[in-house]
Amino acid sequence: MAFLSLDSVSFARSGRAVLSDVSLKFRRGELVSILGANGAGKTSLLRLMLGLLRPETGRVLFDGEELRRFSRQHIARLMAYVPQNRDSLPPYSVAQIVGLGRLPYGSLTRGLSRQDLSRVEAALELLDLAGLRDRPCTALSGGEYQRVLLARVLVQDAPVLVLDEPLSGLDYGYQLRLMALLAALAQEGRLVLMTAHQPDLVYPHASHVVLVDQGRVLVEGHPETVLDSATLSAFYGVALRHHDYEGKRFFIREERKS
């Protein structure tokens, strides 16, 4: 049985179709990357899976049960979310924001336990934020704050991680490290769902890829079959060639001969 699934889901906003008849099934242990142009419906797809939006038609199922029956606190224990980077950063310290990941297990009035604090410190170390723990988030760069949100997700300790363009704002080195980290989390048994625009970074780590265009799933499957030059040339409208090297796949634009 699928761990998280969408069954013939459609969604509209202000009378405009955003997603049409989307059916997808995901299992624990998968790192799923959703690719598509801006406005293709990727973020709405994630928010439907989180229960933040309700489908016009169809169902979102978590472990066989309709997600709409779950409370928000219960969903927060099941799924952790990193939205796209924000323009306005909160005036709280890095450690305070990361500590909010433990909120689904307590309350605003209860302080963090010793175990909670240990989880926060481990996440700060893992994402190279220990030296920034007391710095206000308003003094961070966009890439640093993105890492803070990722640390908060790890502290939340949910079986499903949902990340909307987590590579945005990170330098290339952190992008590589993050993809390796997400792949490791999937191998531990979590379901990791992410949107991205970088097929070359996705290819070596993702176990499943979904291409979305104008609210519809065009193709899905293993990166080796979905992320090839023929499929992506048609998808992006640019002639591409791909080259494989030691488990990685690189894409270059096909130069037209005059």
SSE map:
Elements lengths: L3 E10 L2 E11 L4 E5 L6 H8 L7 E6 L2 E2 L5 H7 E4 L11 H6 L14 H13 L15 H15 L3 E4 L8 H16 L3 E6 L2 H4 L5 E6 L2 E6 L1 H4 L2 H8 L3 E6 L2 E6 L5
Parallel strand pairs: 3-8, 3-9, 6-7, 7-8
Antiparallel strand pairs: 1-2, 1-4, 4-5, 9-10, 11-12
Helix pairs in contact: 4-5
Structure summary:
The protein is an alpha/beta fold and 258 residues long. It has helices at 42-49, 72-78, 94-99, 114-126, 142-156, 172-187, 199-202, 223-226, 229-236; strands at 4-13, 16-26, 31-35, 57-62, 65-66, 79-82, 160-163, 191-196, 208-213, 216-221, 240-245, 248-253. The protein is globular, with a radius of gyration of 19 Å.
How would you describe this protein?
The chain has a single domain, classed as P-loop containing nucleotide triphosphate hydrolases (Rossmann fold). The chain has helices at 42-49, 72-78, 94-99, 114-126, 142-156, 172-187, 199-202, 223-226, 229-236, and strands spanning 4-13, 16-26, 31-35, 57-62, 65-66, 79-82, 160-163, 191-196, 208-213, 216-221, 240-245, 248-253. Helix 4 crosses helix 5 (142-156). The model has no long low-confidence stretch (mean pLDDT 92). The protein has nine helices and twelve strands. The radius of gyration is 19 Å and the shape is globular. The termini are far apart. The chain is of the alpha/beta class and 258 residues long. The strands form three sheets. It has a six-stranded mixed β-sheet, with helices on both faces. A four-stranded antiparallel β-sheet has the order 2-1-4-5, covered by helices on one side. The longest helix is centred in the C-terminal third of the chain and has 16 residues, at 172-187.
